[in-house]
Amino acid sequence: MEDCIFCKIIKGEIPSKKLYEDEFVYAFYDINPEAPVHFLVIPKEHVKSANDLNEKNMNVVSHIFKVINKLVVELGVSESGYRIVNNCGVDGGQTVNHMHFHVLGGRNLQWPPG
């Protein structure tokens, strides 16, 4: 999608601090981190939100979780704990219309989040 900030990040048109990339996903550090460890994992294929998952594209979610598992081990937060967040829609707090998963760790994360 031409006007999607995350699609532009994937294409290298907007700089990011890349953490991981393969043929299906791109992971990068959040520019406004809310925890010592805060990164996003996004599918390379433009999927607007979790509401747009279907039989053709839903396998990317399991791949995203596989990548998250790898990265939290590498970043040293797998044992202490971390949070995975997917905001969906305006009321859910989604500000970029490209499905993405925030991963936060490295500190005690309170509940409810706000």
Automatic annotation (TrEMBL):
Protein name, UniProt field: Histidine triad nucleotide-binding protein
Pfam families: DcpS_C
InterPro entries found in the cross-reference section: Histidine_triad_CS, Histidine_triad_HIT, HIT-like, HIT-like_sf
Location of the motif Histidine triad motif: 98-102
One function term, GO molecular function aspect: catalytic activity
Domain HIT intervals: 5-114
PROSITE patterns (alphabetical): HIT_1, HIT_2
Catalytic residues (UniProt): H100
Entry superkingdom: Bacteria
